[in-house]
Amino acid sequence: MNYAIETIGLTHYYSKGTPHQVAAISDVNLRINKGELVGIIGHTGSGKSTLISHFNGLLKPDSGKVLVDGVDIHKDKETLRNTRFKVGLCFQYPEYQLFEETVYKDIAFGPKNMKLSDAEIKERVIRAADFVGVKREHLNQSPFDLSGGEKRRVAIAGVMSMEPEILIFDEPAAGLDPKGRKDLIKLIADYRKQTGSTVIVVSHSMEDIASMADRVVVVNDSSIAMQGTVDEVYSRGEELRAMGLNVPEITEIFAKLRAKGFDVPANVYTVDQGAEIIRSLSKGRCAE
Amino acid sequence: MIRDITIGQYYPGKSLLHKVDPRMKLILTFAIIIVIFLCKNFFSLGVIAVTAVVASALSKVPAKMILKSLKPIVIILIFTAILNVFYTQGGATWFEWKFIKITEKGVFTAIFTMVRIISLVLISSLLTYTTTPTMLTDALERVLSPLKVFKIKVHTLAMMMTLALRFIPTLIEEIDRIMNAQKARGADLETGGLIERAKALVPIFVPLMVSSFRRAYELAFAMTCRCYTGGEGRTRMKQMKLSLLDFFALFACIAITAGIIVLNHFFTAVI
Ligand SMILES: Nc1ncnc2c1ncn2[C@@H]1O[C@H](COP(=O)(O)OP(=O)(O)OP(=O)(O)O)[C@@H](O)[C@H]1O
Ligand SMILES: [Mg+2]
Predict the structure, then answer these.
(1) Which stretches of chain B sit within 8 Å of chain A by CB?
(2) Do residues A286 and A230 both lie within one domain?
(3) With CB atoms 3.0 to 4.6 Å apart as the test, which of A172, A268, B175, B197 could cross-link to A254 if both were Cys?
(4) Are A113 and B177 in contact (CB < 8 Å)?
C-alpha cells in the first residue's frame, strides 16, 4: 500500500538568491500512513507551516519530492489541481479567510470549486456545518456577524466540506479559550474516527497532541529531529527541552511524584489522564 | 525575507553612501538631478556619468542589482533614442534612404539623452538602495519642516507615509496568506477570462479589506493609548547628526556642479 503522504529529500528556501535566503526546511524525509493521526510539533520558526504547505502543493519544493498516494503532486497541472481537493489544508486563524455574504455560501466555496452538483454541495455543506456545530439558523447570516470561535468553526467546515482524504490543521486551537480548545481537539479526533481520513495536526501544545495523535513528529531547525509514538517521543524530555519544547506540566508533576516515591506511571500527558489516575489511587486507598 | 525587504529596494550595507546623513543624501540627490539637466555637452555629461558610476561603486551594492533598476526603463530608452535619431536633423548626413535620414546631430542627441536618463535613474536609485524607506520619510519630514509656516502639516504627512510604508510588507504577507488559504479551497486564480478573473479576486479582496480596517482601528487605538497626539513636542529616538562625511559629500557635489558649469561654458553645446 502507498503512503498517504511521502516526502523525499524535501528542501525549501525562502527569498532564494538574495542575502536573506534561508532554508526553511531541508532534506525532510517523512512518511505518513493512511488513516493515521499525526501530530507535528516544533518551536516557532522551525518550519512546520512550510512543511505542510508542501503537502497540497501550495509551495513547490526547491529540491525533493512530495508523493500523495504514491503520485508526485507536481507531475502535471491536473495532478496538482486534484491534490488541492484531496489534501485539505486549514491554516492558522482560518477565520480571516471568510468572505462570502452568508455562512452557507462560504462553506460551499470549496465544493463549488470542485464543480459538484448543487444537490451534492448542499448535502456536504449541511453535513460539515452539523459536524462542526454551526447552528442551522446561522447558515443564512453573514459570517462577519459571528463570534471569533463561531467563525473558526465555519472556516473549518469550509475545508471539511471538500471531504478531503487527508486533512491538515495548522494550529487549529490557537487563540481559543480552554473549553473551545478542548472541544476542537475532540472534534478533530471525532472527524478521524468517523471518516477514517488521514489527519495531520500542527500544534505548539504538547498536551493537545498527546491527547489525540497516534504518532508525533518533532521538527527542529528545519528538519525532523524525532518521530515515534507519543510515549516514545515524550519520554525524551531532556532532548525536547533542548529544542525549546516542554513536556506537558502534568507530566512534570507526575515525574516529581515518582521522585517522591509514589508509584505512579511516568507516561501521563494530559490533565484528564492524570485526574483519572489520582482518582483511582484515592479510591484504592479508601478501599484499604 | 519578505518582511525585511520592505518596500523599494533598500540594500543593507555599511558603505560610505549608507553612512551619509539621510537629509544630506536627499538634498544632494535632488541637487544632482537638477544639475543633470544643466549639462549641455558631452564633457559636462561625462562628469555626471563618471559621478554616477563612482557613486555606484562606493555604495557597494552589487552591480547586478544596480543594473536591475535600469530594466524598467529599457523601453523608454529605446523609444527616446529612435525618436531622437529620426526627428533631430542637422550636421553631416550619415545615412539616407527614401524618407529616412540619419544625421550626425540626431545620433549625438540620441546618445546624449540616453546617457542622461541612465545617469538620472542610477543616481536616484542609489538613494533608495542606501537609505531605508523609514529613514527617507524621516529625512523628508525634517527637510520639509520649514513648510510649517504655511500651516502645512508636515509631521502628519510624514507619519502617514511612514505608516503606509510600514504596512506594505504586512499587507503583502496578508495577501499571500489569504491567497494560499483560498487556493487550498480550490480557488482558481490563473485561468478564465477577464470577468472570471476579476470575480476570482473577490475571495481575496474582501478578507484583505476586513483585516486592513481591523488593523487600522487597532493601530489607532494603540497609538492613542501611548499618548500620540501629533507632532507637537515630540522628541526623537534617532537623532540625525551631520558628520565630517556629510560635509565631504556636500563639497564633492559643489565641486561637480562647479565643474559642470565651467565645462558648459568652454565647450559647444550638443543640445
Ligand atoms: N514568506 C516567507 N518569506 C520568507 N521567510 C519565511 C516566510 N515564511 C516563513 N519564513 C521563514 O521560514 C522559517 C520557517 O517558518 P515557518 O512558518 O514554517 O515556521 P513554523 O514552524 O510554522 O513557525 P510557527 O510555529 O511560528 O508558525 C522561519 O525562519 C520563517 O522566518
Ligand atoms: Mg506556522
Answers:
(1) 1-2, 4-5, 12, 177-178, 180-188, 202-207, 210-211
(2) no
(3) A268
(4) no
How remote is the C-alpha of B182 from its chain's centroid? 34
> Ligand 1 within 6 A of A50 CB?
yes
The total number of structural domains in chain A stands at 2
| A198 shares a domain with A70 | yes
- A204 Cα–ligand 2 center, Å: 9
Measured distance CA(A42)–CA(A50) in Å, rounded: 12
Chain A residues with CB under 8 Å of B207 CB are 96-99
Concatenating the DSSP letter of every residue in A169-191 gives: EESTTTT--HHHHHHHHHHHHHH
Return the CATH number at A25: 3.40.50.300
Q: How far is B218 from chain A (nearest CA, A)?
A: 16
User: In this predicted model, what pLDDT tens digit does every residue of A66-97 receive, in sequence order?
Assistant: 999 999 999 988 899 899 999 999 999 998 88
Are A243 and A270 part of one and the same domain?
A: no
DSSP code per residue over chain B: -HHHH-STT-----SHHHHS-HHHHHHHHHHHHHHHHH--SHHHHHHHHHHHHHHHHHHT--HHHHHHHHGGGHHHHHHHHHHHHHH---SSEEEEETTEEEEHHHHHHHHHHHHHHHHHHHHHHHHHHHS-HHHHHHHHHHHHGGGGGGT--HHHHHHHHHHHHHHHHHHHHHHHHHHHHHHHTT---SSS-HHHHHHHTHHHHHHHHHHHHHHHHHHHHHHHHTT---STT---SS-----HHHHHHHHHHHHHHHHHHHHHHHS----
Examine the domain organization and report whether A287 and A166 are in the same domain: no
- Domain of residue A281: give its range: 248-288
List, for residues B122-162, the tens digit of each pLDDT value: 998 889 889 888 888 888 888 888 888 888 888 888 888 88
Q: In this complex, is the C-beta atom of A61 within 8 Å of any C-beta atom belonging to chain B?
A: no
Verify that A238 and A263 share a domain, yes or no.
no
Nearest CB neighbour to A85, from listed B181, B186, B204: B186
Distance of CA B156 to the CA centre of its chain: 22
The answer on A205 and A288 residing in a single domain is no
| Region A238-257 average pLDDT | 87
pLDDT score recorded for residue A155: 94
